[in-house]
């Protein structure tokens, strides 16, 4: 069943123009009351198809709630929905009849007694006789008083549902261009259209969240890979510069190499000197470690950077080297060279 629904949804979504999809629920609710939809296939089948097409094109899924509303509308437009309840039949049988005489005059619902009717030259059947439900609706106050004065007449839940929901809907759906018809069709159609729109927005939000979580996952994987790369490798100054080529400002203990200090591979454009000449600015566009400056996090080294470059903090450099800025810088140089080779 699920695969059939998916295939139908895919087909309807493909063939339904997006421009008309929002109005299809309104058309689906109007069709059952149209004269051409007198047979069951058109009254029930066509609204179901149009409702499904609108939902599929708008939200990418067929809304079962909308299908149920369209089905209820088809039933409400049929003759069974207009059938009078026992209470309405009893009210019509015991009330003065509203009818037209051959002179065009009406015998109104406030008339009482057979003498009034006998005096009229009746030319048409009475509304009470032909449509007790409509007669009760047209004389609502009298019908309410009748029910109050006759507590022995029982009205079930279905009787109330028929009188308050089905019969008014039947009157509106079968007169679609009347005020009642427009309100009935418009109200039901708007509810269905709103359901489709809400589902569409929900799908868009879910897609955006999935994309956002994908980006976060990619970033997490990249940072974990970077951390693993930095933590699991060991370097020394001699590994970086070669024996006898270590810069003097990195030497310790009278010029002896301390291999535990780590090292720095200067492949960028920043000179590896302990201080910046007065009035000059470092060219950081090629990347590189910044060993000069008075103190970390003081932003006292003037430098030029370029668009889309990324600068690590001193804490990140030190963490990458396991507490050594030299080791951390070397690992970042290696990673930078590796990534540049892949660009």
Keywords:
single chain, 343 residues, mainly alpha, two-stranded parallel sheet
How are the SSEs ordered, and which strands pair?
Layout: H1 2-15, H2 24-30, H3 40-59, H4 64-77, H5 86-94, E1 99-100, E2 106-107, H6 114-118, H7 127-130, H8 132-138, H9 140-149, H10 157-173, H11 179-231, H12 237-241, E3 282-283, E4 303-304, H13 314-320, H14 325-342
Parallel strand pairs: 3-4
Antiparallel strand pairs: 1-2
Helix pairs in contact: 1-3, 2-3, 2-11, 3-4, 3-11, 4-11, 5-8, 10-11, 13-14
Descriptive overview:
It is a single chain. This protein is mainly alpha-helical. It has three domains: about 110 residues, no CATH class; about 70 residues, no CATH class; about 110 residues, no CATH class. Helices cover about 55% and strands about 0% of the residues. A two-stranded antiparallel sheet has the order 1-2. Strands 3-4 form a two-stranded parallel ribbon. A hairpin with a 5-residue loop joins strand 1 and strand 2. Helix 2 packs antiparallel against helix 3, helix 3 runs antiparallel to helix 4 and helix 4 packs antiparallel against helix 11. About 10% of the residues have low confidence.
